[in-house]
Amino acid sequence: MKAVQIAAPQQMAVVEIEKPELHEGEILVKIEYVGFCGSDLNTYLGRNPMVKMPVIPGHEVGAVIEAVGAGVPDSFKKGMSVTLNPYTNCGKCASCRNGRVNACEHNETLGVQRKGVMCEYAVLPWNKVIPAEGISARDCALIEPMSVGFHAVSRGQVVDNELVMVIGCGMVGMGAIVRAALRGATVIAVDLDDEKLALARRMGATYVINSQTENVHERVQEYSGGMGADVVIEAVGSPATYVMAVDEVGFTGRVVCIGYAKSGVEFQTKYFVQKELDIRGSRNALPADFRAVIHYMKAGNCPTEELISRIVAPEGAAEAMAEWAAHPGKVFRILVKF
């Protein structure tokens, strides 16, 4: 079967691999759409230390059930639209014992620590297949990245009378904006790109700040009545935005970190103490986060057309990735259609 493979930095091609065999307790899915995410871009650029090349990327999936193995619950039917939970969990580490399987110490994500599913077919354990009836296979490929943003809002324990600042309006940041707005919070979206900020408004942000052309601190003080944000969600992964998060959160506020900074970050640690901050990491997503995104998308309020920057055939994946690498700030999601 056909698959997209990254063989070395900036070397991507279509290859032929064996179609997987279906066993007991498993489901065979026909992959229809797979999204490229930031980790795939870093793999392509040779900046992802968790990847061993050659690798087949892909973990943001829209698929249809092709066949069901023995021992799979009857609720899974051939032809059903699904997405996939791309994470593993060992069941033995501290995270798993505490019920936070999304942060498993030994997690292996599809397309990162193990072979991904940017290919025509995949076989997974039935409990990693997530039904999404009523949502097209194309739109199912948007569920996983949005669920990461949804999970960050849960980590921040956001409630309806709070001011939430989301730094970064990519797909994950948009998920955080949506979830915070759904919980009734007032959302400030921060980004460098006016087009993304305009979309952030349509997805639930009350205020937007272009950090390249506006004074972020002045705007946050204005919108918060001088108090700062109750919760800041960092969804970029740069030293500057990590520092911004700590600077702009109010006293006794919460900072939730999703992005990985690629270099060290120099903080004024006095703010950790003076503000008595809760600083929390947020990794991947839980099944409940996937269900929450599916519930949101079924309501018909998600502007999916605007979140999909481009759809390409597998043969066009390399060109699309090269263009994304050249202009990273202008892309939400590139989908590969099989």
UniProtKB/TrEMBL annotation:
Residues 172-297 form the Alcohol dehydrogenase-like C-terminal domain. Transmembrane segments: none annotated. Signal peptide: none annotated. Keywords: Metal-binding, Oxidoreductase, Zinc. Residues 24-132 form the Alcohol dehydrogenase-like N-terminal domain. Its cofactor is Zn(2+). The keyword Zinc applies. It holds the Pfam family ADH_zinc_N. It comes from the Bacteria. Belongs to the zinc-containing alcohol dehydrogenase family. PANTHER family: D-GULOSIDE 3-DEHYDROGENASE, NAD-DEPENDENT ALCOHOL DEHYDROGENASE. This is Zinc-binding alcohol dehydrogenase family protein. It comes from Bacteroides mediterraneensis.
